[in-house]
């Protein structure tokens, strides 16, 4: 029987962190070179409405064709003015009721309800689906990294947003850059938030392994990999959550993949949503 360490046949990744917070992932298998460089975009100012985020990023980054640019949705929303002040919001009866149950400002809850197309859970926090299909705690409405009394809402059409950013970068640099908008999200069953992709352009959300065979020749029947979320997750790690001031991250030399964009379950497929909705009926 042939015995051969897996590392001789398949890429093994090493993460190296340097002082400039660059992360290098390098395969040790010569025949299969996957060598992805991940760099924070450092030096961006505090972003406000009207700022040209793609232009600011292009001033700091020397893009190459195929690079993936991840941008935190919070800064995209600030640049586009997708923010509200709490003082301008008058909460309705439902927001007052949920605010009371959750111990949250009813005006904030009203903003969350305004963004929600489908509320799946009212307490201990609001969980809802927003217009683009993303399901998020508090509909992704955010109170961090913005002035007191202001809240950030998710971009209403993040897919269109990434397409537009991609075109702007093409116009500015002539480079074909793939773009992901990220947001930090909680998840079911596990503690800890991770980055999720809420919009993407130049790639499919899912890498489809169905039809491939595993190491033992079994045909994979259900394996689909949500690559945009994996990349968003690592970008989120590089950004951090607090005051690092890094709302954009570039992945260089990341391979392409094929698949499809049906990232969100349809209502019929989504058994978790069906179970949650029963609780608030
Ligand atoms: P979210 O995950 O999209 O909600 O974004 P976060 O609020 O977690 O911010 C992600 C990263 O962007 C963190 O490193 C923040 O410090 C940084 N950040 C947020 N707003 C700004 C800004 O206006 N300017 C800069 N330079 N960095 C920001
Ligand atoms: Mn957020
Ligand atoms: Mn975040």
Write a compact overview of the structure shown.
The chain is α+β, with helices and mostly antiparallel strands. It has a domain at 42-70 and 158-265: 2-Layer Sandwich (60s Ribosomal Protein L30, Chain: A), CATH 3.30.1330. The chain contains 8 helices and 15 strands.
Task: Describe what you observe in this structure.
The protein has 281 residues and is α+β, with helices and mostly antiparallel strands. The chain has a domain at 42-70 and 158-265: CofE-like (60s Ribosomal Protein L30, Chain: A). Helix content is 28%, strand content 24%. The protein has 8 helices and 15 strands. It has helices at residues 6-9, 53-60, 73-80, 93-102, 106-115, 158-173, 227-239, 271-279, and strands at 13-17, 23-27, 35-40, 68-72, 83-85, 116-121, 127-130, 135-137, 150-152, 178-185, 194-201, 206-208, 224-225, 248-252, 259-260. The strands form 4 sheets. Strands 1-2-3-14-4-10-11 form a 7-stranded mixed β-sheet. Helix 4 (93-102) packs across helix 5 (106-115). The termini are far apart. Residues 1-32 have low confidence and may be disordered. The structure holds guanosine-5'-diphosphate and manganese (II) ion (2 copies). Guanosine-5'-diphosphate is lined by residues 44, 46-47, 72-75, 78, 142, 144-145, 183-184, 239-241, 243-247. One manganese (II) ion is lined by residues 72, 184, 236, 241.
């Amino acid at each position: 029987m042939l015995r051969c360490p897996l590392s001789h046949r398949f890429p093994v990744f090493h993460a190296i962190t340097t002082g400039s917070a660059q992360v290098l992932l390098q395969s040790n298998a010569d025949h299969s070179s996957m060598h992805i460089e991940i760099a924070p975009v450092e030096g961006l100012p505090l972003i406000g409405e009207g700022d040209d985020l793609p232009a600011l990023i292009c001033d700091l980054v020397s893009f190459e064709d195929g690079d993936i640019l991840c941008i935190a949705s919070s800064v995209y929303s600030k640049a586009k003015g997708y923010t509200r002040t709490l003082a301008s919001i008058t909460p309705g009866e439902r927001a007052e009721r949920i605010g009371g149950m959750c111990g949250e400002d009813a005006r904030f809850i009203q903003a969350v309800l305004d963004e929600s197309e489908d509320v799946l859970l009212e307490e201990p926090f609001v969980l809802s689906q927003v217009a683009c299909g993303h399901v998020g705690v508090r509909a992704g409405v955010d109170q961090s990294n913005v002035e007191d009394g202001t809240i950030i809402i998710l971009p209403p059409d993040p897919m269109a947003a990434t397409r537009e950013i991609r075109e702007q970068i093409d116009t500015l640099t002539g480079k074909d850059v793939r773009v992901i908008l990220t947001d930090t999200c909680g998840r079911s069953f596990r503690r800890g938030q991770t980055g999720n992709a809420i919009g993407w352009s130049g790639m499919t959300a899912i890498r489809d392994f169905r039809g491939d065979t595993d190491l033992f020749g079994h045909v994979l029947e259900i394996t689909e990999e949500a690559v945009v979320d994996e990349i968003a997750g690592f970008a989120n790690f590089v950004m951090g959550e607090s005051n690092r001031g890094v709302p954009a991250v570039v992945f260089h030399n990341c391979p392409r993949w094929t698949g499809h964009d049906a990232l969100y379950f349809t209502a019929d497929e989504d058994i978790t949503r069906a179970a949650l909705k029963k609780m608030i009926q």
